[in-house]
Design brief:
Elements lengths: L36 H14 L5 H9 L20 E4 L2 E3 L2 H12 L6 E7 L5 H9 E8 L2 H11 L7 E5 L12 E6 L1 E2 L5 H6 E14 L2 E10 L2 E10 L2 E2 L6
Helix pairs in contact: 1-2, 2-4
Bound molecules: S-adenosyl-L-homocysteine (SAH).
Length: 247
C-alpha cells in the first residue's frame, strides 16, 4: 500500500519559447460539458432535494464536484442523470441519488465537517472528492490498481489536499488512519469486515451495502456507541461485490 504523493506542481508557463501573440494557439483546457455544467448540476441538486435529500452540506458538495469529469467523455452527457455509469474494469459509479443518500446518512445531521473518514472503493474517485469537502481528512481505498490510478488522474485537477488515495484491500481497513468518525463502503459483502467495526471511533457511524439474501443487498447503518454497536437495516440497493485482495 502506498501513500499518495503530493500533487505535481504546475509546469511553469514561462518555459515555452516566446512567439508573436497571434501565433499562440488558445490553451487546450479539457472542458467536458464546459460552462453549461454548472446549470446542469444545479438541476441535479434540485432533483435530489425534491427526492428528499435535505442535508445542505451534501447538496452543496454535489453542486460543486463536477461528476462529468469522472466518467468517460462518451458518457459525460449522462453524468447528471440519476443513473449509475460504467467506470471500467467491470465497476460502476453509483447514481447521484444513492451517493447523496449515503453521504447524508454518514453525516447524520451533525453540524460542521466530519473528522477522519474511510472510504472503501475509490472507483473513479467521485465520491472521494465529495467526501473531501465534507470531512477534514479522507482515506479512500481501492483494490484495483487500474482504478486507483484512474482516480488519481481524475482527482488531480481538484487539488484536494485532505484526500489520501490508497491501493489496498479495504476489507482490512486502514489502521494507520483509525479511529474514523465515519466509514463508507461502495461495495457490498455478505457481512461487515471486523476491521471496519474495530476502526470506527466511538460515536462514529458506518454506512455500507450488505448482502441480505441471495444476491439482494440492503444499506446498513452501524452506530458505535459506548453501549456497543447499533445496526439499522435500510432500503434495498445494488452495489458491486466487495472482494478481497489487490488486483
Ligand atoms: N465510490 C466509487 C464507487 C466505485 S464502485 C465512485 O465514486 O466511483 C466500488 C469500488 O469498490 C470498485 O472500484 C471496486 O473495485 C472496489 N472494491 C471492491 N472490493 C474492495 C476492497 N476489498 N477494497 C477496496 N476496494 C474494493
Amino acid at each position: 500500500m502506498k501513500r499518495r504523493p503530493s500533487f505535481p506542481a504546475q509546469l511553469p508557463l514561462a518555459s515555452a519559447p516566446s512567439r508573436p501573440r497571434a501565433a499562440v494557439p488558445p490553451p487546450q483546457i479539457p472542458q467536458g460539458l464546459g460552462m453549461d455544467s454548472d446549470a446542469v448540476r444545479r438541476r441535479m441538486v434540485q432533483k435530489l432535494a425534491q427526492q428528499g435529500v435535505s442535508d445542505a452540506a451534501v447538496l452543496a458538495a454535489m453542486g460543486t464536484i463536477e461528476r462529468h469529469r469522472f466518467v468517460d467523455s462518451a458518457l459525460a452527457n449522462q453524468a447528471y442523470e440519476d443513473t449509475s455509469l460504467p467506470i471500467g474494469l467491470g465497476q460502476t459509479i453509483s447514481k447521484p441519488g444513492v451517493v447523496a443518500r449515503m453521504a447524508e446518512l454518514l453525516r447524520n445531521g451533525r453540524p460542521g465537517k466530519m473528522g477522519r473518514v474511510l472510504e472503501i472503493g475509490t472507483g473513479c474517485g467521485y465520491q472521494a472528492a465529495l467526501l473531501s469537502l465534507l470531512a477534514t481528512e479522507v482515506y479512500s481505498m481501492e483494490r484495483l490498481r487500474g482504478l486507483h490510478d484512474k482516480a488519481r488522474e481524475n482527482l488531480r485537477p481538484f487539488r484536494l489536499a485532505n484526500l489520501h488515495l490508497l491501493l489496498g484491500d479495504g476489507m482490512q481497513g486502514y489502521a494507520k488512519g483509525a479511529p474514523y468518525d465515519a466509514i463508507i463502503s461502495a461495495a457490498g459483502g455478505s457481512e461487515l469486515p471486523q476491521a471496519w467495526l474495530e476502526q470506527l471511533a466511538t460515536g462514529g457511524r458506518l454506512v455500507a451495502p450488505v448482502v441480505v439474501a441471495g444476491s439482494a443487498q440492503a444499506l446498513v447503518v452501524v452506530d458505535k456507541t459506548v453501549q456497543g454497536l447499533r445496526q439499522t437495516l435500510l432500503e434495498a440497493v445494488h452495489f458491486v461485490p466487495l472482494k478481497s485482495g489487490v488486483a
